[in-house]
Amino acid sequence: MESPQTPEPATVHNIVFGALRRNLAGALHEPGVPAYDELATPWNLAVQASPAAVVEAANPGDVAEVVKFAAANGLLVAVQATGHGIASEMDGALLIHTRALDTFVLDVDKRTARIGAGVTWKTILSACEGVGLTGLSCSAPGVSVAGYTSGGGIGPMARTFGAASDRVRSFEVVTGDGELHQVSAQSDPELFWGLRGGKGSLGIITGMEFELLELPFIYAGALFFDAFHVENVLRTWAQWCPTLPGAATTSVAMMQLPPLPGVPEPLAGKFTIAVRYVYIGTADDGATWLAPMRSAGSLLMDAVGPMPSSMIGMVHSDPEDPLPAAEGHTLLADFPVAAATSLLEAAGPDSSSPQLMVEIRQFGGALAQEPAVPSALCHRDAPFGLCTVGVGPPPVLPAFRAHAGDLMTNMSPWAYGGTLPNFSAGSGAAGFAGNYTPAVLGKLTALAEYFDPSNVFRLGQVPER
Ligand SMILES: Cc1cc2nc3c(=O)[nH]c(=O)nc-3n(C[C@H](O)[C@H](O)[C@H](O)COP(=O)(O)OP(=O)(O)OC[C@H]3O[C@@H](n4cnc5c(N)ncnc54)[C@H](O)[C@@H]3O)c2cc1C
């Protein structure tokens, strides 16, 4: 790591950032050095991030220094842990990279984890392996716990255990005024409310403590069928979902995976459909509930069975390596067979859909219940979520986005009328507003005005002011 004291060639930015650099324990990198490129490049390579400088925060004090400096100098601040949910190109902003805030402590007796903001679910899941615990991970464990939880965190066990943000005990956060706060439901109920679901609109989380679950094993995985069975699988899934208990969480994904290393041979270069499934209970009960889907067509692969809960990432098998992606998202009020038919028209095997994946997640169950301590996460009662992911070189991504827009229009008869913050990065202020009810948006806006008076976070997912 570059030392913060290392003199660099004189540039305008050096002069501007000299005072800040001297106050940091971590390094500040400007364009033109490899560390800048490494840290400013997000996981989603479709976004060409171009911050004025990147600060690799070494401690919460660094985060506070950067925010104060930005506010005093009329600059904006962005935050990145992994770049899975990058909100903008961050033009001219100071980017705080959190990967070096990587401490974590598991308290096995209390069943809690205390982590720094750079820690990913992968780290937590493997640390929990062997002690019979787990957390409410993202479908993609490479995502940061803090970034995910700031948007609610709705993962592959959401119908059984609710949102990850419901399990937070406390945060350590630097608000837009540069103040470092220790925040719990008791100490600061408003900030605690807004940090759970409000994305990064109020502050940069530097650390957090959350509850773990005692859950060594799950009955989980995915069933894969080829293009011939897509129609029957999707229709069967639509009829099966309403019968499921809260112990089961499922999603279905139509996929066109390229023949690349890591893609299982039976799925590579083909149109396939995957039924993802997590059951919390005995393997026998899990298999009984899954039986209608197992018989919905001849299986290409049956990868559902008992597994350690640390392997939850196998359920979606989301890509791990960075790629250029255009994502679309909306929530659905229902997913009857007629909706499945519409989805097949827009994205089925005969549709010429360019999307790598079109996914429907079933929500409901525990997720639909308001948590004991209220949070800013809205639309918890939406029964289904729809996501599209198109992957390709940047010039083709606008066409993928246009296709996703047409697909959403096709599905509009079943629209819920809203979105989730974790699935709508990059959709601007209007997209941010779509994540919330008017009352919650109003409260978040008022809190943002109080905690971020200079609006330094406005390049991220924040309310319009
Ligand atoms: C393949 C894939 C699968 C996914 N699966 C799910 C899923 O199952 N459920 C779900 O809910 N979401 C899911 N997501 C969305 C994911 O949770 C968001 O993109 C999340 O913001 C990623 O957080 P990150 O910190 O890793 O990403 P980054 O791009 O580094 O950060 C994204 C945003 O998170 C916020 N953020 C990050 N760090 C902090 C911090 N320290 N303080 C405050 N705000 C912060 C900021 O708004 C930031 O702009 C998925 C995304 C991908 C790409």
UniProtKB/TrEMBL annotation:
Entries under InterPro entries matching the protein: FAD-bd_PCMH, FAD-bd_PCMH-like_sf, FAD-bd_PCMH_sub1, FAD-bd_PCMH_sub2, FAD-linked_Oxidoreductase, Oxid_FAD_bind_N, Oxy_OxRdtase_FAD_BS
Pfam (any one): FAD_binding_4
Cofactor(s) this protein cannot do without: FAD
Key words of the record: FAD, Flavoprotein, Oxidoreductase
Stretches that traverse the bilayer: none
Keyword Flavoprotein among record annotations: yes
Boundaries of every FAD-binding PCMH-type domain copy: 47-215
A GO MF label: FAD binding
Membership in a protein family: Belongs to the oxygen-dependent FAD-linked oxidoreductase family.
Entry protein name: FAD-binding PCMH-type domain-containing protein
Taxonomic source organism: Arthrobacter alpinus
